[in-house]
Design a protein that fits this description.
This protein is mostly helical. Helix content is about 75%, strand content about 0%. It is built from 21 helices and no strands. Helix 16 packs across helix 19 (about 595-625) and helix 17 packs parallel to helix 20 (about 625-635). The longest helix is centred in the N-terminal third of the chain and has 102 residues, at about 10-110.
């Protein structure tokens, strides 16, 4: 328990144990680290061995690559000449390929294949034939283009070869088409097959050969239509239905109408047939073949060949020619008097209108053009001749009636009415109007103008003899027991006759007014006015007023009337009073015998106007220009107002 500093003994033992533990721990750690390193070495030994093996392989690969590189260098050096030769061959191959394409294109443009040449030799044209013919046209067109280049010799040689193929094919096609056209005449209602249409369309490039075929089909259809027309006239249809057209020969209008109807239907059928054959659409197709065919057609037309439309019109003219003569003869027979029965003027006019209507229809079907001169269709020309014949027949009949009417004398009835002898002439004129109203309508302005002109001629020929006969008969009118006014009665008779003729004509609904009717109306109205004027003059002449009015008109407004004894107040007053008595009595018989109230009213108004125009100046002169004596005398006379009242004006 002294003063030393050493630890107690109890702690000494503790320190010694800690050191031992530390040493043991360090030893354990080191031993453990050693074990780990040994484990690592054992684990990495396989990897190290693998790396060593890889190094060995890489070294061997490097040696192999070096060997290959050396070999490639040696091979490249050896094959350089071969590669150059291959490149040259490749270039030559490309050149040869281009040459091959050029040759193929040349053959395509300028040569036919063996199959196409064989197709052109077929006796019966088919799709292959027409395709080969279209190819020939294309090649021929290409050769013409080749002639424009510096290869003219080659172009000529190729064109000669194609021309030989083409002409041979066209001749074969023409023979086949002619045979087909002949077959069209063996049936009543033939149909044009697509092959015939294609053949005709192809043959248009050869105008001469095409014309042969047009003539062939025209001739066979000409004969066929003629046979059918004769059969329709004499035998009718199958089993007699419909009946023969000539069964109605006793009825001229029906007879001619049936023939015209048949002709119109037949010509429409022929137009459809020939249009399909000669005009039809181009069957060459599209593209180069169509262009070549069109060029051939244009060249043919430029050389003077007729166009398809002109060829169609010529063919239709030939077909229609066969029926012209039998039709025209039968129409003329219908117009001629038969068994004492003659065609009346109105029936002849109906036939004229019927012929004119069908001429317009058939002319349109047959492609007839007015004023075409030498190209006039023969059937249309026949219709025009028949039309003129029918019109001439009506004119001749009317002239004959007019001559007979002039030779006879119209008896004037006592009442100045229209004599019965005028009834027949008026009936004929009215029948002509009804016939014109019944005419078939047409939109052809030229035909309508001609129809109006012809109708005017007929109406003039029908009415003028009547007017002349009435005027001639009026000279035999005598004075009546009532007033003895012969001139007024003559005008009354003329007005009554003209009105009797005109009245039915005015009630018609004609879309135009014929010149003859206008002339007749003007003559009637003038006769009515003349009746009134003459009656007024005769009435005033009895009292002397007419003479006084004329004498007074010779003086001026400032002249002295007192110096003229004929114009004294007493003389004028007596004339005025006499005139008033005359007009205050019965109406003049010339006015009363006018047949219709409308005419009487018109004549009465004109009569009153004439009287007033004569009375008023005399009365005014008496009351204002003759002094007091005149005024006094005027006071004894009726005023103008009194006169108007009496006359009902």
């Amino acid at each position: 328990a002294g003063g030393g500093t050493s630890p107690p003994a109890v702690f000494k033992g503790v320190n010694t144990s800690a050191e031992a533990a530390r040493r043991a721990l360090r030893l354990g750690i080191e031993r453990r680290g050693l074990e780990i390193n040994e484990d690592y070495l054992r684990a990495s030994e396989a990897a190290i061995q693998a790396l060593d093996a890889l190094d060995t392989e890489i070294a061997e690969i490097a040696r192999a690559c070096s060997a290959v590189t050396s070999s490639v260098r040696e091979t490249r050096a050896q094959t350089a000449s071969l590669a150059e030769a291959a490149a040259n061959l490749q270039t030559e191959l490309a050149v040869n390929a281009r040459k091959t394409d050029l040759v193929a294109d040349f053959l395509q443009k300028y040569q036919l294949t063996a199959e196409e040449v064989a197709a052109l030799s077929f006796d019966t044209p088919g799709d292959a034939f027409f395709a080969a013919l279209a190819r020939v046209r294309v090649v021929h067109a290409n050769c013409r283009q080749l002639l424009r280049t510096h290869h003219q010799r080659a172009g000529l040689e190729l064109m000669d070869g194609m021309a030989a193929h083409q002409e041979s094919a066209y001749e074969r096609l023409c023979r086949w088409l002619q045979a087909g056209c002949r077959a069209l005449g063996e049936v009543e209602a033939p149909e044009v097959s697509p092959s015939l249409r294609r053949a005709a369309a192809s043959l248009r490039a050869r105008p001469a050969l095409f014309q042969y075929c047009v003539e062939e089909v025209s001739n066979v259809r000409h004969s066929a239509v003629f046979r059918r027309f004769v059969a329709a006239l004499t035998r009718g249809g199958p089993d007699g239905v419909p009946r023969p057209i000539e069964a109605h020969a006793a009825e001229p209008l029906r007879y001619v109408g049936d023939m015209l109807g048949w002709l119109h239907q037949a010509m429409a059928t022929e137009r459809e047939l020939l249009d399909a054959l000669l005009v039809g659409t181009n069957e060459a197709g599209d593209g180069e073949a169509a262009a070549a065919a069109e060029a051939d057609a244009e060249d043919a037309e430029a050389d003077g060949a007729p166009s398809p439309k002109v060829a169609l019109a010529m063919a239709l003219a030939k077909v229609a020619e066969g029926v012209c003569r039998p039709f025209q003869v039968r129409v003329e027979q219908s117009l001629a008097p038969q068994s004492g029965r003659a065609l009346t003027p109105d029936s002849a006019l109906r036939m004229v209108n019927l012929l004119s209507f069908y001429r317009s229809l058939i002319g349109g079907v047959l492609l007839h053009e007015e004023g075409s001169g030498s190209s006039t269709n023969p059937l249309v020309a026949s219709l025009e001749k028949c039309e003129a014949t029918a019109h001439s027949r009506a004119m001749d009949d009317l002239r004959a009636r007019g001559v007979r009417l002039k030779r006879s004398t119209l008896a004037v009835p006592r009442d100045l009415s229209a004599p019965p002898a005028l009834t027949e002439g008026a009936r004929i004129a009215n029948a002509l109007v009804e016939a014109q109203l019944a005419a078939p309508s047409t939109e052809d302005k030229g035909a309508l103008d001609v129809a109006i002109e012809r109708f005017d001629e007929l109406m003039l020929e029908a009415l003028r003899p009547l007017m002349e006969a009435v005027t001639s008969a009026a000279s035999s009118v005598t004075a009546s027991s009532a007033d003895g006014a012969i001139p007024a009665r003559r005008h009354t008779f003329i007005a009554n006759c003209f009105d009797a003729i005109l009245r039915p004509l005015e009630l018609s609904s004609l879309p135009f007014t014929p010149k003859a009717i206008e002339e007749l109306r003007a003559s009637r109205d003038n006769s009515v006015l003349e009746t009134a004027a003459t009656a007024a003059s005769e009435a005033l002449a009895q009292s002397g007023l007419d003479e006084r009015a004329k004498r007074l008109a010779a003086y001026g407004p400032d002249d002295n009337l007192a110096s003229d004894p004929a114009l004294s107040p007493a003389t004028l007053g007596e004339a005025l009073r006499g005139a008033f008595r005359a007009i205050g009595g019965e109406t003049p018989s010339a006015l009363e015998t006018l047949a219709r109230g409308e005419l009487r009213d018109r004549a009465g108004a004109a009569f009153a106007q004439a009287v007033i125009e004569a009375y008023a100046p005399v009365y005014d002169a008496l009351s204002s220009r003759l002094g007091e004596a005149g005024v006094a005398e005027a006071a004894k006379c009726a005023t103008e107002r009194d006169v108007r009242t009496v006359l009902g004006v």
